[in-house]
Specification:
The protein has 318 residues and is an alpha/beta fold. It contains twelve helices and twelve strands. Bound molecules: glyoxylic acid (GLV).
Amino acid sequence: MEKILVTRQIPAKFKQRLEALGEVEMWDHHLTPMPRETFLQAAADKTVLLVTLSEQIDNALFQQAPHLKIIANMAVGYDNIDLVSAEQHGVVISNTPHVLTETTAELGFALMMAASRRLPEAIDYVQDGQWESWGPYLLAGKDIYHAKVGIFGMGEIGKAFARRLKGFNADILYHNRSRNTKAEHELGAFYTSFETLIRESDFVVCTAPSTPETQNKFDRSVFQMMRDDAIFVNIGRGDLVVEEDLVEALIAGEIAGCALDVVRDEPIRMDHPLLKQPNAIITPHIGSATVLTRDQMIQTCVLNIEDVVQGRPARNQV
Ligand code: GLV
């Protein structure tokens, strides 16, 4: 019999599948994460954890929980997990790739469109009673049609984003650790250096994960290289951006705007200077948040747990 901890409320149908494997303890909250101490105590006797990005899975956890077999992370990214410690303690880690690709690309596209046509500003304008007449350049934005869009990170989500851009006749540039000639043929995307992508793009779209190579990649020098009418979109991870530098760049008019689904410290503090910039759009890390995709992510966690508990390799081991 397994002892399973689920750190967030999940639908009964998934909980029941886990109950077929053993005893399930679930933190019965949708929005409130388990406090760290509560989490460490609850994990101590468990063999299986189903966790979210809110949990830090570090050496302290592995030392506290010596019976663990698998930790299923309900995310494609796993920068919340110390993989070296996991390996040292012989614990399998799984993630949820593929199922969230299209959904996350769609949110990225929604952000790009919202920023390009200044939708939050326009909605506020009407709601604040400012709409008194039509003006030739009132809330004038920027076309995506025929624009140059630079994708930083041509993984699955980058490719799904590029597929959507084809319908807009955009010129697609990309930069990635390694060149992806298949994507170039299929999507008509051009591989460029990071600097060329930054200098030339109307829209710079970041879909890359957090790694030692990508952390703090977008600093003041990068924003200064961008066109002053460029829009920066981030659906990767917040720590790729030096946020003070982004704020400075927005204030100095070095770029035209940004749209971010991820920030360095989530949830964002209400006194964060980014929230004061009229040309910054921030959403609360909802890239994969459709009901279907969230169901599929939880199901993926359950399938990986079943794999390991029933003696098979986890299908999405990282
Ligand atoms: C979300 O950011 C994820 O990694 O799935």
